[in-house]
Amino acid sequence: MVTREANGTSPVRQQVRTYQVRTYGCQMNVHDSERLAGLLEAAGYRKAAEGSDADVVVFNTCAVRENADNRLYGNLGHLRPTKNAHPGMQIAVGGCLAQKDRGEIVRRAPWVDVVFGTHNLGSLPVLLDRARHNRRAEVEILESLEVFPSTLPARRDSAHSGWVSISVGCNNTCTFCIVPSLRGKEKDRRPGEILAEVSALVAEGVLEVTLLGQNVNSYGVEFGDRFAFGKLLRACGELDGLERVRFTSPHPRDFTDDVIAAMAETPNVCHQLHMPLQSGSDRVLAAMRRSYRSQRYLGILEKVRAAMPDAAITTDIIVGFPGETEEDFAATLEVVRAARFAGAFTFQYSKRPGTPAASLDGQVPKEIVQERFDRLVALQDELAWEQNRALVGRTVEVLVSTGEGRKDADTHRMSGRARDGRLVHFTPTGAVRPGDVVHAKITYGAPHHLVADGPLIAHRRTLAGDHFEAGIRPKTPGVALGMPTMGAPR
Ligand code: SF4
């Protein structure tokens, strides 16, 4: 970049500073990182080329995983020699772990320049400037949300799929979860703003959106409409060009029948549901402070399948929660059998500092947790495999993915997601690009994916595919600050 000196005479060459964002944790963090990238680009930074050292490295951290802090300090330690060899380089740490550890981060890693929390993503460029100017670390953590993150600019990673936040924070108090203390109470975004963001993405070629919230079923609680989520799904159905709508995560406590009707009656809403079970034992659910019981959970699945027999249902399960007995675990296996999940993210319970469950009596020994975990995974794999084998011979529509869409060097297959969220590896015929849509016949069902090896039945070239090829990604400019961004529906 070339600018003029104050007297307007000699031009001065100013180098554009480059950045890299390293993301840990959930989809919420992945999307926050798109916002961080958008903010830095709006402030004049450019994404560092693959393999090159960036002038600014941002860690977007997660406090949920076991040993998250050890991993962060290890990574910061690795970066220290690079920083010493690269004058002017800055390191910033944000996200949940930053919100939790605050000033502790610069005490343990004094070469860190900026620490920012979950409520003030938007301050990152200013904090970097201030740290450079003052030559000292800037730590800024807010206790509540400054502006809704979706009002900030974003640099999207995918040309065909977009995350869209509908709420942040959570009003529940699950005893294993650190989210409420780090992300605060639920804040709902207005439906009009959400739909405007979705429309803007569709105009840029995006075919699929995933609506994001810690508990999408309580969406509307802040503005007094308990049916707001179902209405939002139906409103997404009105948007021309939007082919697939997904959402994560629903909560069995707040799941209402109108949402099932909206899913079944809105053609672009995918028949896919990822609904965390966590445990099949009512005693453990009570200890987790999950305010539904296994029968309620299974009752929701029954209604979903009655309305959408082809729905693929996936879940999260924690094994070895404090106090879990063999009988409790058997109840989980029973619910898993009855639920016929298409897939499950299974976790071994481990203490998370700062959560109520960390101080509960009855922590289950590691080897017992491991043994139960192995049994659960074996059962779930068997059930998923059976369902996937039953799909052989069916034709599925696949949206070719960016990350998964690269051609495999050995098999020459590409990959993408079916409408129900299943991963499909297919043999491309012709020039198929990530972002295109193909129809393929399933030839093999594995426990975790489907294979379609015959010739493609159809291939539709899309604007998203053109954009992928041209390296164009949707950019959300952000809305003018000062606009009301939360509260009553519009
Ligand atoms: S619903 Fe429970 S697990 Fe999910 S974010 Fe809220 S407190 Fe955490």
Task: Kindly list the characteristics that best describe this protein.
Rossmann fold; binds iron/sulfur cluster; 3 domains; OB fold (Dihydrolipoamide Acetyltransferase, E2P); 490 residues; 14 helices; pyruvate-formate lyase- activating enzyme; 6-stranded parallel sheet
According to CATH, what is the topology of the largest domain?
A: pyruvate-formate lyase- activating enzyme
Q: Please count the beta strands (DSSP E, at least 2 residues each).
A: 25
CATH homologous superfamily (4th level) name of the largest domain: tm_1862 like domain
Largest sheet properties = 7 strands, mixed
Instruction: Please indicate the percent range of residues in DSSP E strands (runs of 2 or more).
Output: 15-25%
Which overall shape is indicated by the principal axes computed on the Cα atoms? Answer: globular
Distance between the termini: 42 Å
Q: Please identify the structural class as seen in this structure.
A: alpha/beta
Fraction of residues in H or I helices: 25-40%
In what order do the strands lie side by side in the largest sheet? Answer: 22-23-20-19-18-21-24
Cα-atom radius of gyration: 24 Å
